[in-house]
Each structure stands twice: as C-alpha cells, then as structure tokens.
Amino acid sequence: MWLYILFLASGILLGMYDKIPQKIVSKSSGFQFWSLLIILFAMGVGIGGSDEITKGFYTIGLHSIAFAAAAITGSLVLVRLLRPLIGRGRGEI
Amino acid sequence: MSWAIFVSVALGIAAGVLIIPESFSAYSGTFIEIGLWFLLFWVGVDIGRSRDSFVKLRQYGWRVLLVPLGVAVGSIAGTVAVGLMLGYNVAEAGAVGAGFGWYSLSGVLISELHSIRLGTVAFITNVVRELIAFVVIPLVAVRIGHIEAITPGGSTSMDTTLPVISRSTGPETAIIAFLNGVLLTAVVPILVPLLLKIPF
What we know:
By secondary structure, chain A is an all-alpha fold. Chain A is built from 5 helices and no strands. The two termini of chain A are 37 Å apart. Chain B has one domain (32-196). In chain B, helix 3 (51-60) packs across helix 9 (171-196) and helix 6 (103-113) packs antiparallel against helix 7.
C-alpha cells in the first residue's frame, strides 16, 4: 500500500517543482492511457478466469447498482447538510 | 477514452475465458501492481502540475473543502450502510465507495489489494455512478442546488461530468467542481488501501 502512496507522492512533488523535462511530461496522458489499458486488460483476464465472478455476475451487477445509488445519495445528503457552512456569505456558489 | 477502457476489460475477460491459462492469474497480480506504480506516478505528476487549482483553492478559502469532504464521507457512509445489508464488511463496502466514480483505478486497486470479485464490484459500481450522475446532475441543479449538483459525479467532476455541471449551474460552480474532482482524485489511491486495512 505504501508503495502506491510513495509513487503518487513522488509524482506530485516532481510535477509541482517541474523536475521532469517538458518533453517527457507532454507524454503523460499517453503513458496513463496505455498503462491503464494494459492493467485493465490484466484485470479482465482475472475476471474471465474466475468462475466465482462469471457465475455470479448478475448478483455483482445488482450489488453495484445499489452501491452506486447509495454513494450518490450519501454524498448528496451530506453536502446538503453542510451547505449553510459552505455558502455562508458567498451567495449561490 | 471510455470506449477504450470497456474494450480493454472486455478483451481481457474474453481472453481469460477462452485463451489464457489459469496459471497466468498467478502473475497477473504482479503485473497489475507494477502497472499501478507507473500509472499512479503519472497521475501524481498531473496533480502536481495543476498549480492553478491550488491557487484557486486558496482564493475560495477553506469552506470549499467541505464539498469534497462531504462527497467523500457521504459516499463511504452510503456504501457502508448498503454494504452491511448486502453482507459486505465495513472495509469492503467503504473501499468500493472510496472509488468516488474513478472506476478504472478503484477497480484495479481493489482487485490487487483484496480480490478480483470486490474489484469487479468496485469497477461496475463506479461506472454506474458516472452514468447516474449524467442523468441526475441537471435535476439536482434545478431542484436542490448548484453546489449539490457537484456531488453525484464524485471525482469525475473534474473531467467527464464537468461539462454537464457547468451547463447546469455556472462557471463559478464549475471551478469548485473541478477542485472537488482534483482533491477526490488525489485521495482515492490513499483512501482505498487504508479502508481495506479496517479489520471489520
């Protein structure tokens, strides 16, 4: 876990202080795009190779819809409750 | 980008079912882990380079941080509440909610740190979250409020759902939506592993 944070933090610091040559930084979105596709392909292989998932896909789908609705509702309700603190003296921001 | 992500996952699933032997699974975890290091580094570089966002954040003051804080806590609380009813534990349900709509990263991160099954749940949950967000943002903006319209998209309020938020609210809310997305994006890789460490 700490390695993930270390890589993220290193990127933030190097990006913040412009320590990476512009020529390489300009390729950042390409690096992210292709590495993401390769990782997701590997994840797909794991999904396809798992009997537990392929057989339980209907249940997984239903659970996911419930989770998504709950996440949206939870965040909406909490920000609504915090609204008087967020917008105080600032009108409709 | 979205279509490429779905094609990539679909090809992977097809390959997993039809071509690639089960023994490959032993190596796929290492493969995903090294790929994540590389990906997170470049995500970090992008965050670090968006200095304008940090300047704007200072201009708006600390209160604007309550938006991403509310989205983060609300998302996690919502998924934990539903997750407990569905038989998940707090760590699993919280980690799914902490994807904040960033389906690609949360899916692979949870697959690597927990299980392919929970990673798949996280991936689909956050895809569905983005889809629902596109539909409800204009409604929330009109019926509830502009700031509240930022919340459904989670971390996608900095990119994919930003145009909908901007059109439904206005430029000032769009700036806060962007900041919200940047901050939530920055905490996903930290929060997901932390939540998975919860022992219950």
